[in-house]
Design goal:
Blueprint: H1 7-19, H2 23-38, H3 41-45, E1 48-50, H4 62-70, E2 74-81, E3 85-91, E4 97-99, E5 105-107, E6 122-124, E7 129-131, E8 136-137, H5 143-150, E9 155-160, E10 165-166, E11 182-185, E12 189-190
Parallel strand pairs: 1-2, 1-6, 6-9, 7-10, 9-11
Antiparallel strand pairs: 2-3, 4-5, 7-8, 11-12
């Protein structure tokens, strides 16, 4: 009989784990993951990329965004709406950001143009835990699963420290959970 871990418990455990990663180790991990991402086919083939603005203890996405601007890629950052919906807003180096009521960083509403038909080539999907089957546990709102269910042609990549990878069948995967196409870690890639 397979015994599953509770998703809520995994979130709590992994948030604690992320907070306790040594700062020097975190910088090395971030660089290793960054190097793998920007050399990937998904990155090089993408023109429009969806990404979140990270905050500690998440994996740093600021350098990734700067590289995308340098590479002349269009960057879209999610903005949260009622009923667990999100839309992606085109941002640039001059965009200002604010924290929403959930503490997430999103584009300042006064400074964006809403693109109803954003055709993202690549979405960098955040998460707290991943398994070897490319399932993910996010932060619990279901925003990405809902979005990806409606936009299933977008290539998805998640970035994770090796400590965030759990064995197969660690938690019960729901019908509404959307698998990621690729997980890039400091130790390797899960295709």
């Amino acid at each position: 009989m397979v015994v599953f871990m509770d998703k809520k418990e995994i979130r709590i455990k992994h948030l604690r784990l992320l907070k306790n990663i040594d700062e020097d180790k975190r910088k090395v991990y971030d660089q290793e993951i960054f190097d793998k991402l920007i050399s990937s086919l998904e990155w090089n083939n993408a023109e429009q990329i969806g990404i979140t603005i990270s905050e500690f203890p998440e994996l740093n996405t600021h350098k990734i965004m700067n590289q995308a601007f340098f590479d002349n890629k269009l960057i879209f950052v999610p903005k949260i709406y009622p009923r667990h919906q999100m839309k992606f807003i085109n941002v640039n180096e001059k965009t200002t950001f604010v924290k929403n009521k959930f503490g997430l960083i999103e584009p300042n509403i006064a400074n964006f143009t809403l693109h109803n038909n954003v055709n993202l080539d690549l979405m960098i999907v955040p998460g707290l835990a991943f398994d070897l089957n490319k399932n993910r546990i996010g932060f619990g709102g279901g925003y990405y699963d809902r979005y990806l269910e409606q936009h299933n042609l977008i290539k998805t990549v998640s970035l994770a420290y090796e400590e965030m990878i759990l064995p197969k069948f660690s938690w019960k995967v729901e019908n509404t959970d959307i698998k990621i196409d690729k997980v890039i870690t400091n130790d390797g890639v899960i295709n």
